[in-house]
Amino acid sequence: MSLRSITLAIIVIAAIFTFTFGMYMHVEKAAALTERIHEGDLIVKNGTFTIADSNFTVNGNIYVMKDAVLVIENSILIVNQTEDLEHVIKVNETARIEIVNSNVCTSVGSIQMIITDNASATISSSKISNDTMIECRVNSTITVSSSKIASLTIADNSTGMLNGAEITEKLEIYGICSVNMTSTHIAYIEVSGRCEVRALNSYINSTSVSGESLLNATATILNNVSIDNAATLYAKGCSLNRTFVRGKSSCVFNSSQVETLEATGVSNVKLIKSHVNEALLKVVGHFTVKNLPKMAKLWGSSINGSIFYSLNITLINSTISSYKVHACEGSIVEISNADMDILKAYSGSTVYLNFSRVDEAIVMSSIVKLMHSTIDKLEAKGSGRIHIYGESIVNEMSVKDSCLTLDGEQSSKIKDLVIENSTLIIARMPSIDSISKVSSFLFRQITISCMKEEVTFSNVNITIIDESLGTIAKYSVNETGYATVLLDFTDTSKTYVLIAHSGRSFIKLTLAFDCLHMITLNFSQFSIDDSPPSIQAPSIEPMEPSDVQAVSVKVTVSDNLYVEKVYLFFRFDGSSWKCIELKRAGDLFEGYIPSLPAGSKVEFYIVAYDILGNKAVNDNDGKYFTYTVKYSSTSFHISLIGIVLALMAIAIVYVVWKKRNLLLR
Fold this sequence. Notes:
Elements: H1 3-31, E1 34-39, E2 42-44, E3 48-52, E4 54-59, E5 62-64, E6 69-73, E7 76-79, E8 88-92, E9 96-100, E10 103-106, E11 111-116, E12 120-124, E13 127-128, E14 132-136, E15 141-145, E16 148-155, E17 159-163, E18 166-174, E19 178-182, E20 185-191, E21 196-200, E22 203-209, E23 214-218, E24 221-222, E25 225-227, E26 232-236, E27 239-245, E28 250-254, E29 257-264, E30 268-272, E31 275-282, E32 286-290, E33 305-309, E34 312-316, E35 324-328, E36 332-336, E37 339-346, E38 350-354, E39 357-364, E40 367-371, E41 374-381, E42 385-390, E43 393-400, E44 403-408, E45 413-420, E46 423-428, E47 431-436, E48 447-448, E49 452-458, E50 461-466, E51 470-475, E52 482-488, E53 496-502, E54 505-513, E55 519-528, E56 534-535, E57 539-541, E58 551-558, E59 563-572, E60 578-581, E61 583-585, E62 588-593, E63 601-610, E64 615-618, E65 625-628, H2 633-664
């Protein structure tokens, strides 16, 4: 190797060593924080004030004023104070603070960091010590990522975004705020007011949500959750330890695990594909369960038993084998794909039984609706109502002082049916092996294949209505207790209504023709009707009638069932009342008050009856509807001619009398 080559190699090695050593010295220099001290308050008024690569101590408050920016980067900020809460860090009026890869702490006690009045704060890869309380208020925004904070408050229409953050003590959200968190760990979160909080892939140890707030948690582990005072929790893919739902709150669990669930007040709880190990339900407004494998130890439960008080419960694709379900005090319970020993419905409850099997069911003052289900023994009494739909099977049924509606297919099966002092409504007739002690009216939905067909009803009055023209046929029970109705409708373009009524009870059917001119009787309503018709204010024509004009009175009268009659009562000058029956044109009724003498003061009012005899009166709150009859022009001319003729007659008599007196002289 030549001397020139050796020299060149030495130069290159020296250059590399010098560059590497220089970079090392630069890094070491950069890593060493510069000590800086600021005496008194640090006030950032204009532009940007940056604290970088420093161990920065402030012996006073820190104020970031309107539109200014404070940047703390790769630094340690120490607020030096002699007592707790002596100083404050305040960012307000559209100002901004940015804390990046830094620590914020105090020398003694705690300090507040307040971001307010449309200000903003960004905290990234930093640590805010336990003695620093951060508050974001009044339309401000805070963003925290990959940082550790002890206490954070977001309030007064502010917004928070947390990503990879850790809050070791408390996150408080109230007012009208929005907070989104991802991959965040929170020791305790308290939400109140009308806030919306969304958590994704986070861990929340303890939660309190109240007011009209929403906590939407996805893939989150929640412990000690309290949902109170109309708040909402939506948890998907969560594992919850202890959960409390109170006071008209709403709670939805989807694909979640709940160890202990307590719901009180008029709450709304819904579980989808979830598991609850232990539930304590007291006066719950709504409780829905889908694909829940097991539910145990409900409030008021006995051995293998569940008792629901004032609940609204849905069990879908659930297993409640060997369970007794008691529905009491206005509960609404829906059970699907279930197998149980005993079902009891009391005191105004409603039970929907879908694709399920029950060994024994007792219904008292409640409603049970059966769809594609099987019951070995069913007993209804004390105003109980049983509805059987679809392909259902009942081996033994007893109905006393109650109502039974059969709307099952031909494949439905009832082996033994006893009906005593009850109402039987048959829409689609199932197969019944035996039936006894039938009372009240009985009808069957049928299709009539010709224009004339007889249908028999028992113990009931029948009214057939063309709703555009009024009543077209009325039938009453005969001495045998039956009314035979001959259906004869030649106009197949119309739809008729058939009402079977007895006392205040009625059945309403629609008679419609199909393209083959076949009539189908469709059951549409069964009810008790005590409400009278509704009478609107009448109108008259002409508005100012004369003594030679009859007055047309029109009034709109409607009823939930059917308006039977409408009458107009009128009188003039305190005379006795006279009655006119108004004619129908749909809901509009019209009649005429005859012409009356000029100057007469006419009073009138309207009376209406529905088909069940319920009466309504519109007498203008006791003042009656009135008008005054005026003189007509014809009457005036006739009166004037009469006066002239009378004067002429008087004049002629006077002249004749004068002449006679002159002749006598």
